[in-house]
Amino acid sequence: MRTIKVKKPWGLFIQFTLNEKSTVKILEVKPGEMLSLQSHKKRAEFWYILEGNPTIVINTKVKKHKPGDSIKIQKSVKHRIINKTAKIVRILEIAAGHFDEKDIIRYEDKYHRVG
Questions:
Q1: In this predicted structure, what is the pLDDT of residue 21?
Q2: What fold does the segment set 21-108 form as a domain?
Q3: How much is the pTM?
Q4: What's CA 15's distance to the chain center, in Å?
Q5: Which of 57, 63, 80, 81 has fewest C-beta within 10 Å?
Q6: What is the rounded distance in angstroms from the CA atom of residue 39 to the CA atom of residue 36?
Q7: Above 70 in pLDDT, residue 101?
Q8: CA nearest 96: which of 52, 34, 37, 40?
Q9: Greatest CA separation found in the chain?
Q10: Predicted confidence (pLDDT) at residue 1 exceeds the cutoff of 80
Q11: Which residues contact 110 (CB under 8 A, 6 or more apart)?
């Protein structure tokens, strides 16, 4: 996936995919909640922060993000979204490759879904 910005007289547009097979979702993470630490064998993911200030874990790297930031996650890379704030976090997710919810490998999960 390649993100491009195209300037127009009225502003600009940001293009995330072009003629690719993909699945597009918006993730909403409640205040104080987090996704499981997970990876996927069959898909890569691209996240674009729409709202809020999530903490993103990629392998062992932990970084706080803001709206407009983008994150690329390759296949088999451990990742997680954490919302340590009092406001909702909204993230555009574009998954490239074969999308299947059963392709989630969980390593840690506060909701007891590992294994």
A1: 86
A2: Jelly Rolls (2.60.120)
A3: 0.88
A4: 16
A5: 63
A6: 9
A7: yes
A8: 40
A9: 52
A10: no
A11: 34, 36
Share of the chain above pLDDT 70, in %: 99
CA torsion sign for 75, 25, 109, 100 is negative
Q: Which of 71, 62, 33, 65 is nearest to 51 (CA)?
A: 65
pLDDT single digits (tens) 4-16? 889 989 888 988 8
For residues 54 and 91, the answer to whether their CB atoms sit within 8 Å is yes
CA distances from 53 to 5, 58, 94 (A): 22, 16, 19
| Tokens 């003629």 found at | 19
Dihedral sign from CA coordinates of 56, 106, 102, 89: negative
Provide the Cα torsion 63, 64, 66, 70; round to 10°. 20
The 10s digit of each residue's pLDDT in 45-69 is 999 999 999 999 999 999 999 999 9
**Residues 15, 8: contact at Cβ < 8 Å?**
no
